[in-house]
């Protein structure tokens, strides 16, 4: 699809996300509905910032377990449910979504909401890394927005069970490769709350100024450094990784890799935090496949693809080691995918090692 046009306002740090989106809508009238969606995301991320921040207070209603058990039999944390609801309600009220498909990595509940006036479909992980919240470690929200396929004929009158077949049909239409994404965003809840977005024309980062309650542009057109000396993977799995990956990482540790640099390691265990740092400082973030989990841990549809879109829009690479993550069509909602993403030259070193295998 064609790239949106931006102007000086969009490159000026200090403008609010609201103003940024108004400007984008003015310059690109065909994206008006998309910018409205971002108004909803803006509000939802502020609400989620609050909920996450307050979640550990002894008086907090979000502390502990809800008692509900998800489809995979795990206890579902209240925070997952709450953030899921916040995002879902915020997006629904825009009336812009044909289908909103909720994939919570922890809870794996899957809902489909059918509404009139459809144009876009949103996939999201409302609170990625939620197992970290109890320890005050950063978490994030990941969102991908696709255009709704015309083949998905939705009967706005149908409710619940009556829709089953249509739902199945719409679901199939929702499973699109990342190359079809029209927008992606993440929100990082950490020492600052950040929102990074792409509309297919670079990556723009906003930082939440809580005193005025607005996301303010802090980094325009972010580019991930091409070279780096940081890698970010769960090293406890090292022995189970593929040989090409092991060899490259070994070279980085010893300073005998392509760049000759001795790398250091940084791993939060929260994808949004690890990718955010990678974008700003350079590095390679990965959750590779291993002998036990051949496809790693991350979900293609609502983690791998949107984050890969952002990484590529910042000039980085995102791959399974063998193919571009963006080009893979998910076969089912919770499908996992091995991922290595980040600084171009370092990720390329991994791709070369796999190619030479
Ligand atoms: P979650 O859905 O349980 O939150 O898992 C997703 C998270 C990612 O944010 C992170 O990259 C990864 O799991 C860390 O996994 P591990 O603890 O195996 O290193």
Automatic annotation (TrEMBL):
<dbReference type="GO" id="GO:0006094">
    <property type="term" value="P:gluconeogenesis"/>
</dbReference>
<dbReference type="InterPro" id="IPR044015">
    <property type="entry name" value="FBPase_C_dom"/>
</dbReference>
<keyword id="KW-0119">Carbohydrate metabolism</keyword>
<comment type="similarity">
    <text>Belongs to the FBPase class 1 family.</text>
</comment>
<comment type="pathway">
    <text>Carbohydrate biosynthesis.</text>
</comment>
<dbReference type="GO" id="GO:0005986">
    <property type="term" value="P:sucrose biosynthetic process"/>
</dbReference>
<dbReference type="GO" id="GO:0046872">
    <property type="term" value="F:metal ion binding"/>
</dbReference>
<dbReference type="GO" id="GO:0006000">
    <property type="term" value="P:fructose metabolic process"/>
</dbReference>
<keyword id="KW-0479">Metal-binding</keyword>
<comment type="subunit">
    <text>Homotetramer.</text>
</comment>
<dbReference type="InterPro" id="IPR020548">
    <property type="entry name" value="Fructose_bisphosphatase_AS"/>
</dbReference>
<feature type="domain" description="Fructose-1-6-bisphosphatase class 1 C-terminal">
    <location>
        <begin position="224"/>
        <end position="353"/>
    </location>
</feature>
<dbReference type="InterPro" id="IPR033391">
    <property type="entry name" value="FBPase_N"/>
</dbReference>
<feature type="domain" description="Fructose-1-6-bisphosphatase class I N-terminal">
    <location>
        <begin position="16"/>
        <end position="219"/>
    </location>
</feature>
<dbReference type="GO" id="GO:0005829">
    <property type="term" value="C:cytosol"/>
</dbReference>
<keyword id="KW-0460">Magnesium</keyword>
<dbReference type="InterPro" id="IPR028343">
    <property type="entry name" value="FBPtase"/>
</dbReference>
<dbReference type="Pfam" id="PF00316">
    <property type="entry name" value="FBPase"/>
</dbReference>
<dbReference type="InterPro" id="IPR000146">
    <property type="entry name" value="FBPase_class-1"/>
</dbReference>
<dbReference type="GO" id="GO:0042132">
    <property type="term" value="F:fructose 1,6-bisphosphate 1-phosphatase activity"/>
</dbReference>
<keyword id="KW-0378">Hydrolase</keyword>
<dbReference type="GO" id="GO:0030388">
    <property type="term" value="P:fructose 1,6-bisphosphate metabolic process"/>
</dbReference>
<dbReference type="Pfam" id="PF18913">
    <property type="entry name" value="FBPase_C"/>
</dbReference>
<dbReference type="GO" id="GO:0006002">
    <property type="term" value="P:fructose 6-phosphate metabolic process"/>
</dbReference>
<keyword id="KW-0732">Signal</keyword>
<protein>
    <recommendedName>
        <fullName>fructose-bisphosphatase</fullName>
        <ecNumber>3.1.3.11</ecNumber>
    </recommendedName>
</protein>
């Amino acid at each position: 699809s064609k790239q949106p046009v931006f102007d000086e306002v969009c490159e000026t740090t200090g403008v609010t996300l609201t103003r940024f989106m108004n400007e984008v809508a003015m310059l690109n009238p065909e994206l008006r509905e998309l910018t409205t969606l971002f108004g909803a995301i803006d509000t939802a991320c502020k609400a989620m910032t609050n909920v996450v921040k307050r979640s550990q207070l002894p008086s907090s209603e979000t502390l502990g377990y809800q008692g509900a058990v998800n489809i995979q039999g795990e206890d579902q944390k209240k925070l997952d449910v709450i953030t899921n609801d916040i995002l879902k309600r915020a997006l629904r009220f825009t009336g812009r979504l044909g289908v909103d498909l909720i994939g919570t990595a922890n809870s794996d509940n899957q809902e489909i909401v059918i509404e009139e006036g459809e144009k876009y479909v949103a996939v999201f992980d409302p609170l990625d890394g939620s197992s970290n919240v109890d320890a005050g470690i950063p978490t994030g929200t990941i969102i991908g927005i696709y255009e709704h396929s015309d083949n998905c004929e939705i009967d706005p009158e149908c409710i619940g069970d009556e829709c089953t077949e249509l739902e199945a049909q719409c679901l199939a239409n929702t499973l699109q490769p990342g190359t079809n994404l029209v927008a992606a965003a993440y929100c990082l809840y950490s020492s600052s709350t950040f929102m990074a977005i792409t509309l297919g024309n670079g990556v723009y980062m906003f930082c939440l100024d809580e005193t005025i309650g607005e996301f303010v542009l802090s980094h325009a057109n972010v580019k991930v450094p091409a070279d780096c000396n940081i890698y970010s993977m769960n090293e406890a799995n090292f022995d189970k990784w593929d040989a090409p990956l092991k060899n490259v990482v070994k070279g980085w540790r010893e300073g005998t890799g392509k760049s000759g640099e001795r790398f250091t390691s940084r791993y939060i265990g929260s994808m949004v935090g690890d990718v955010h740092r990678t974008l700003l400082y350079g590095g390679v973030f990965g959750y590779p496949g291993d002998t036990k989990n051949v496809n790693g841990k991350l979900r293609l549809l609502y983690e791998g693809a949107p984050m890969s879109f952002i990484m590529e829009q910042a000039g980085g690479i995102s791959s399974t080691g063998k193919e571009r993550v963006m080009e893979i069509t998910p076969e089912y909602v919770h499908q996992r995918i091995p991922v290595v993403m980040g600084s171009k030259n370092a990720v390329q070193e991994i791709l070369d090692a796999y190619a030479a295998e």
